[in-house]
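Chapter review: from sequence to fold.
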Amino acid sequence: MSFPRIPLSRVPSYLHNSNNCFHLLHPPFIPVSKTPTLPTYQTARTCTDFNSQTQAQPPLSLPSLIPSPPVNNPNATHRWKPMCLYHTHGKCTKIDDPVHVEKFNHDCSRDFQVSAADFERKRPQDFDFFLVFDLEGKVEILEFPVLIIDAKNMGVVDLFHRFVRPTAMSEERVNEYIYNKYGKFGVDRVWHDTALPFNEVLQQFESWLTQHNLWEKTRGGRLNRAAFVTCGNWDVKTQVPHQCSVSKLKLPPYFMEWINLKDVYQNFYNPRNEARGMRTMMSQLKIPMVGSHHLGLDDTKNIARVLIRMLADGAVLPITARRKPESPGSVNFLYKNRI
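The token string follows.
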């Protein structure tokens, strides 16, 4: 199975009617770069079809950080637009419609830019790629977005994004659930048009990983040179196993370990006030949030922006949590000072 090329800059096209513009737009695109006066370049690559130990690292005090460019950055080359959510599912039929293209982004990479200065403090990593991952859905998984970040050049490699249809809920309950969750974003229609059962999403996800040479079932099913990065432990520790149980699936081996970005952030920056969530980290780093909070794709992109900033500041991201092979329900947390 091949997947559409999805660069990772703007947010998916949510509405079936391209004339109905996404109503919760945020400020224009804000690049990750901390030095807007320097020439920037896009590090994202267009995708093709297709056990670490904690390292000691000197803390970087938050007050010394140079803030990201302001919202009205005169050097920004384009305004931020929501991504076409039909496009992320390979179902956009309006890619040649100039009105639609003007309103919705179809290139995931453009919002992620770094400058030469961002490499001055960057350090080698334990992994070649980070899979930024942020689920939505507290009863069953509703949205499954994953963004590949190249650990060396801090560029976006590719995006996987699927809406997930619950299997243990009545149709009436699903409709109510989706309206309450996604109706406020104006994307409930695209959810109904594109959502797939979790087992199909997982199959497509594994095919996508294989096309990027990040996973092979014949090699034990673990990730190859890559690690999941989450904002907290809940996504991989709790919700994925729960969904696998509901969907009568065995927990895949690639969900045996992950990086909780909040733990690395806390130990690297040692902030005066704990950063207990994505928005706090972004606020402390002075990175303006784009998109809509609790829309999984937007949250994944914002978490990726925090990750890229941390890489540029010299943070090393090791595995922070690992399941016990003999008892996958038990997890060893590898940081003493953790959130």
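Two observations follow directly from the output. The mean pLDDT is 82. Residues 8-48+74-333 form a domain with the Nucleotidyltransferase; domain 5 fold (CATH 3.30.420.10).
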